[in-house]
């Protein structure tokens, strides 16, 4: 950005660059394209961070659910210790 700003402020440099088809309009357009790319990069970085945070939160909730299911399974095993067929219907394998 500073490069284009410097070029656009120096009339002597602009005159020399005009020989090579680098006009004020072309330099301004290139500067605007660069600004657009920088905005896109900033947005992509922000969205990447948001996606990582969403993944972290999802993983945390899955771990909490897994812990809860483990506790629930332990309660079911204790509560249905004398009803092995009912435990098997819940997906808890019981040795006979």
Explain what you see.
The chain has 96 residues and is mostly helical. The protein has one domain (2-89). 81% of the residues lie in helices and 0% in strands. The chain contains four helices and no strands. α1 runs antiparallel to α3 (24-79).
The gist of it:
By secondary structure, this protein is mostly helical.
Structure classification: mainly alpha
Pattern of helices and strands: HHHH
| Largest sheet: number of strands, sense, barrel closure | none
Give the radius of gyration. 33 Å
Mean pLDDT: 92
Distance between the termini: 76 Å
Sum up the overall morphology in one term.
rod-shaped
Please bin the fraction of helical residues.
over 70%
How are the elements arranged and paired?
Elements: H1 2-9, H2 11-18, H3 24-79, H4 84-89
Tags for this model:
96 residues, mainly alpha, 4 helices, rod-shaped
């Amino acid at each position: 950005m500073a490069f284009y700003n410097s070029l656009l402020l120096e009339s002597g440099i602009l005159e020399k660059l005009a020989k090579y088809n680098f006009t004020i309009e072309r330099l301004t357009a290139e500067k605007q394209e660069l600004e657009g790319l920088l905005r896109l990069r900033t947005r992509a970085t922000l969205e990447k961070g948001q996606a990582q945070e969403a993944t972290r939160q999802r993983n945390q909730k899955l771990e909490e659910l897994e812990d809860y299911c483990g506790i629930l399974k332990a309660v079911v095993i204790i509560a249905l210790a004398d009803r092995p067929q009912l435990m098997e219907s819940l997906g808890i394998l019981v040795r006979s």
